[in-house]
Specification:
With 199 residues, the protein is α+β, with helices and mostly antiparallel strands. It is 23% helix and 34% strand. A hairpin with a 2-residue loop joins strand 2 (65-72) and strand 3.
């Protein structure tokens, strides 16, 4: 008797998860490009503003946050990002570390908060993000953490706009607990800029 072949059909949740994971991988490519443009300090090179077509274009620096526009698959995407003011422990070797908000006006998930930590996270671990007394849990994959499915990026962004600093605690694949602290000075102005530029 011939057996009927079963075809697995992805659920809407699975499709959304794949989309967000794919977006995170695309963002890592942007991170690496921007990292190459750093002058060895927090501030980004002014030459980015005159970069070739298709490269990140500077939309301005707002205190501790910088805003950029990028063309991805023919669609304009905007980002704001910052580097940590402090990372602990100090004796741990890590790659580039960024906190970022991505704005894709034509995407199903328009705004996404993500953190690139410079190491591979412990499998299935979570990151604790704290803004004052408010705490949020982020999901992880490889070296990226983001707001998990079913949770609201908008809620976190609202808290960031109303805060003065944010800290993120994560665990590496080797079991090392790290804490990255960021200033939120200039976050609101930078966030308003990408909404304006990419709308």
């Amino acid at each position: 008797m011939a057996h009927k072949k079963t075809v697995a059909v992805a659920t809407p949740l699975e499709n959304e998860t794949k989309e967000r994971y794919s977006n995170a991988m695309k963002k890592q490519t942007v991170f690496k490009f921007i990292a190459a443009s750093l002058l060895g300090t927090f501030f980004f090179s002014a030459n980015i503003a005159s970069a070739a077509k298709g490269d990140p274009r500077s939309l301005g620096t707002y205190k501790d946050w910088s805003a950029y526009a990028w063309v991805e698959s023919g669609q304009k995407v905007c980002y704001i990002l910052s580097r940590p003011t402090k990372s602990l422990p100090k004796n741990v070797k890590r790659g580039d570390i960024y906190l970022m908000v991505t704005y894709r006006p034509k995407s199903r998930s328009k705004e996404e908060v993500s953190h690139v930590t410079g190491y591979t996270y412990k499998n299935k671990s979570t990151v604790e993000l704290a803004i004052g007394k408010r705490k949020f849990k982020l999901a992880t994959d490889n070296d990226v953490a983001w707001v998990p499915e079913g949770e609201s990026d908008a809620k976190l962004i609202k808290a960031m706009r109303g805060g003065s600093k944010v800290s993120l605690k994560g665990t590496s694949s080797r079991g090392t607990l790290t804490t990255d602290s960021y200033s939120l000075q200039g976050f609101t102005a930078a966030h308003k800029q990408i909404r304006k530029s990419c709308s």
